[in-house]
Amino acid sequence: EGTKITLDACRAAGVKRAVIASTSGVVAVSRDPDDIRDETAEPPMDIIAGWPYYRSKLYAERAAFDRNGPGFEVVAVNPSILLGPGDVHGASTGDVVSFLERRLPFIPAGGLSFVDARDAAQGMALAMEKGRPGERYLLGAANMSLDVFFHRLSRISGVPAPALRLPRSIALAKAGAHLIERARKRLPFDLPVDPVSAEMGQHFWYLDATKARRELGWTPRDPLETLADTVADLRARGVVWPQP
């Protein structure tokens, strides 16, 4: 309802064009590592129906596009995981923090896409300027298995990657998630992985950002620069200890 109310108020106030911040997860998530999704992919409702955040983002995006038309243009930008410096609220760097603090108990079998927050901001500005009304634009700089992701973080930070890796089986991951939940209730300290996050980590969030590059002229930076800047920023702000 918030998206509807906000966009209706914008249109009533004479605003002619709006860019909404959606998420790549409304279309770019799969059980298949070879399924690299673009803007034409259908939302995987069999997957995201069980995840309220992504389900609500999809419904909000649909409500926004319902309002697109003559006199009021709506464009959606769909970034993947936001990394880079400046996450003062810990909104999207929590897994990196857990890794640097050596609190990550295992590496899930899935894969992710991420983008530098600075590049996502540029993508939103470009979408306002050049985006086609009624269209979404996926923003992602790199697709990586979680195993590769955490080992690259390890090389950058000097912190060893977890030795334990979950199997690919979603069923086994769900069983493991229930064990994690039981362990959380009995241990005197908190594990940084909840069952839903463990399940999500078994999926592949890979995307193709060709459309944003081609139509918007969007050019993200080297993803390794983003990882290095993320680690350096967290240490400089004292979120994690500077030494591994």
UniProtKB/TrEMBL annotation:
- Signal peptide extent: none
Locate the NAD-dependent epimerase/dehydratase domain: which residues?
3-140
UniProt feature coiled coil, ranges? none
Spans traversing the lipid bilayer? none
Q: Which Pfam families match?
A: Epimerase (PF01370)
GO CC annotations, alphabetized: cytoplasm
Q: Which InterPro entries match?
A: Epimerase_deHydtase, NAD(P)-bd_dom_sf, NAD(P)-dependent_oxidoreduct
Q: What domain of life is recorded for the organism?
A: Bacteria
According to the UniProt entry, its GO molecular function terms are: aldehyde dehydrogenase (NAD+) activity
Q: What is this protein called?
A: Dihydrokaempferol 4-reductase
> Origin organism of this chain?
Sorangium cellulosum
